[in-house]
What we know:
Layout: H1 2-26, H2 29-56
Amino acid sequence: MAADKKAEAKTEQAKGKVKEAAGRAVGNERLTAEGRADQAKGDARQAKEKIKDVLND
């Protein structure tokens, strides 16, 4: 289960990077901001899973 959550976090980070890059390419500040937000959510998920791993060891 933890591997699934980690994969979701990586996917969300990647999706955010793509959105941010697309937003920059077309000059869309909203899309750029959404991409950054998605990356932040992915980072938070990844940190949460890392903490779970440390506590479960």
